């Protein structure tokens, strides 16, 4: 398996991309309509969040049929057309595989509930619940019908965990993966895949949350190896990425080192917790730059030295917009957006762009709790109130942290609902759409900068393949790194603050070529002053 490291992935949340039917929900035909736009941007692959039949309790991550298209989004003919037209545009598709759990409306769970022991073995069903917590709040166990027993759900109560110890479960899931492979998709994103391996006996934990009993267990590596062998491992051009919850560098090296035959790359989330107070998401805190820099350097160096491979990203459907978290977006949206982009697109790993990031989309600024639909957010709001926060405080936290921040409709133009739908959108468009939209931004500084970054990765093997080493590790406001390959060198400096900062340029780079700058800088020097949110890439061919 050799991964093509020149590729860049673009993530589409299908529900919110483009609605062609007027039902207020984005659809597959909408994605087909926008393929020329994506080609213009230059990306190679589109990751689609789940579009399968689902009660939509968790926006499609609660799947009730793994091998069909939810009529909300279209049908199988639309899917096949999308893959075909995609290929004509040089764009492949990566599908989201949610194999840790299925909806309780899935026939496997329904048959289990009806008393079929074969299907009861597909789940974790016990007489006594443990003290584990659901990642969406409350206990991780719920009553299994009226049997007096309990089933495990690490996420929503409607998302029942699948028992990977059972070979029949693995067999069924591998069939699902092969079903979509046969349809011509070229990539998979495996949802929370590092929690599929659970301890043989599920018991109370000293930590009282259950995490040590199911996170990064050695058996998960065995399962991934089996998955690889039974499915995509047969095709060397496949791109696979695992979403890893609360993972470690050591495990991500094992998940992704090519000789292990598990996955091509891994998402970790540590860098997106640097604005959590005491590790808790539902809090307000300015981001901790020292921690961010330290995490990037440690992961960058270790993955580079041990042949691991990371998926690099600032945004996804579970995160508020990075511009609102890391940038003075009111004054420096263009500079901040381009600097954030360079800080990952010039680094070592595969960059992911989340829809709207390429035009500098920001959080929606909703006015009321009624505007939010995400189950995690509405649960969190209730918990914050129950913990004694005032409704105003609780609302401010939801505004900053809700996953709906990134799930708002793609902003295509300044017509009603941002040009996303002619109907009533399932989630309200962000307030910024009259100013921030594709029509206005497509020739603008952010979109064109992304085009350059994507093109550079294809032109220079140094960017795609080079090693990573930290630079300026003590700088209070610059995150910098070097890339090396076959005698070529690149130094990338990113000012993460609205204040300028003067730096002594490393001796080797004082006469270097300026490969990229978001301020039109053209010359290196001995001492340089980086402007607010400036990014500068110095190249030694
Ligand atoms: C992943 C998905 C998230 C979903 C969860 C449960 O974290 O990204 O959206 O809610 O898994 O499937």
Structure description:
α13 (375-386) packs antiparallel against α14 (391-401). Strands 11-10-9-3-2-1-13-12 form an 8-stranded parallel sheet. A 5-stranded antiparallel sheet has the order 14-15-16-20-18. Strands 5-7-6 form a 3-stranded antiparallel sheet, with no helix packed on it. With 541 residues, it is an alpha/beta fold. It folds into 4 domains: 9-102 and 167-373 and 406-453, Alpha-Beta Barrel (TIM Barrel); 103-161, Oligo-1,6-glucosidase, Domain 2 (Oligo-1,6-glucosidase, domain 2, Alpha-Beta Complex); 374-405, no CATH class; 463-540, Golgi alpha-mannosidase II (Immunoglobulin-like, Sandwich), CATH 2.60.40. Helices cover 31% and strands 16% of the residues. It is globular. α3 links the parallel β2 and β3. It binds alpha-D-glucopyranose. Residues 58, 61, 98, 155, 191-192, 243, 317-318 line the site of alpha-D-glucopyranose. Belongs to the glycosyl hydrolase 13 family. Its EC number is 3.2.1.93. This is Alpha,alpha-phosphotrehalase.
What's the structural blueprint in terms of helices and strands?
Blueprint: E1 9-12, H1 28-33, H2 35-41, E2 45-48, H3 76-88, E3 92-97, E4 101-103, H4 107-113, H5 117-120, E5 125-126, E6 141-144, E7 149-152, E8 159-161, H6 167-182, E9 187-190, H7 211-214, H8 218-230, E10 239-243, H9 249-256, E11 265-267, H10 289-305, E12 311-312, H11 322-326, H12 329-345, E13 350-354, H13 375-386, H14 391-401, H15 404-407, H16 438-441, H17 445-459, H18 461-465, E14 467-471, E15 478-485, E16 488-495, E17 501-504, E18 513-517, E19 527-530, E20 535-540
Parallel strand pairs: 1-2, 1-13, 2-3, 3-9, 9-10, 10-11, 12-13
Antiparallel strand pairs: 4-8, 5-7, 6-7, 14-15, 15-16, 16-20, 17-19, 18-20
Helix pairs in contact: 12-17, 13-14
The site of alpha-D-glucopyranose has 9 residues, from loops.
């Amino acid at each position: 398996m050799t991964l093509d490291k020149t590729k860049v992935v673009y993530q589409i949340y299908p529900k919110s991309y483009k609605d062609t039917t007027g039902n207020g929900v984005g659809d597959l035909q909408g994605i087909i309509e926008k393929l020329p736009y994506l080609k213009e941007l230059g990306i190679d692959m589109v990751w689609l969040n789940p579009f399968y039949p689902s009660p939509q309790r968790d926006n499609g991550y609660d799947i009730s049929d793994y091998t069909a298209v939810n009529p909300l989004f279209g049908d199988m003919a639309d899917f096949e057309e999308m893959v075909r037209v995609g290929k004509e545009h040089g764009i492949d598709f990566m599908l989201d595989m949610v194999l840790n759990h299925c909806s309780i409306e899935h026939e496997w769970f329904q048959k289990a509930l009806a008393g079929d022991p074969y299907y009861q073995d597909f789940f974790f069903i016990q007489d006594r619940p443990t003290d584990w917590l659901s990642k969406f709040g409350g206990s991780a166990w719920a009553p299994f019908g009226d049997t007096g027993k309990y089933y495990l759900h690490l996420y929503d109560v409607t998302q029942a965990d699948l028992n990977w110890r059972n070979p029949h479960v693995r067999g069924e899931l591998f069939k699902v993966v092969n079903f979509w492979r046969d349809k011509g998709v070229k990539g998979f994103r495996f949802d929370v895949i590092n929690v599929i391996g659970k301890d043989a006996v599920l018991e109370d934990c000293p930590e009282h949350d259950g995490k040590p009993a199911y996170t990064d267990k050695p058996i998960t590596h065995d399962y991934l190896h089996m998955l690889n062998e039974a499915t995509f491992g047969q095709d060397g051009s496949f791109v696979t990425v695992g979403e890893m919850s609360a993972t470690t560098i050591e495990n991500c090296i094992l998940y992704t080192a090519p000789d292990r035959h598990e996955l091509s790359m891994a998402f970790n989330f540590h860098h997106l917790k640097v604005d959590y107070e005491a590790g808790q998401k539902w809090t307000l805190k300015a981001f901790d730059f020292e921690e961010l820099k330290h995490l990037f350097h440690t992961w960058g160096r270790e993955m580079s030295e041990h042949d691991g491979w990371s998926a690099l990203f600032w945004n996804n459907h579970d995160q508020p917009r990075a511009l609102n978290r890391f940038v003075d977006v009111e004054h420096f949206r263009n500079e901040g957006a381009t600097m954030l982009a360079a800080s990952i697109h010039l680094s070592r790993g595969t960059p992911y762009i989340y829809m709207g990031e390429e035009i500098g989309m920001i959080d929606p600024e909703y006015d009321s709790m009624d505007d939010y639909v995400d189950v995690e957010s509405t649960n969190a709001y209730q918990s914050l109130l129950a913990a004694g926060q005032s409704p105003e405080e609780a609302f401010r936290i939801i505004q900053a942290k809700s996953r709906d921040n990134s799930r708002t409709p793609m902003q295509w133009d300044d017509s009603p609902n941002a040009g996303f739908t002619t109907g009533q959108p399932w989630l309200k468009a962000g307030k910024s759409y009259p100013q921030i939209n594709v029509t206005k931004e497509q020739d603008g500084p952010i979109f064109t900068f992304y085009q350059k970054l994507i093109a550079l990765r294809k032109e220079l093997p140094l960017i795609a393949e080079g090693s990573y080493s930290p630079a300026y590790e003590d700088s209070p406001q610059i995150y910098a790194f070097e890339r090396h390959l076959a005698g070529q060198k690149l130094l990338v400096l990113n000012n993460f603050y609205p204040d300028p900062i003067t730096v002594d340029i490393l001796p080797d780079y004082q006469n270097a070529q300026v490969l990229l700058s978001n301020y039109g800088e053209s010359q290196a020097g001995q001492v340089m002053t980086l402007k607010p949110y400036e990014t500068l890439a110095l190249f030694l061919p």
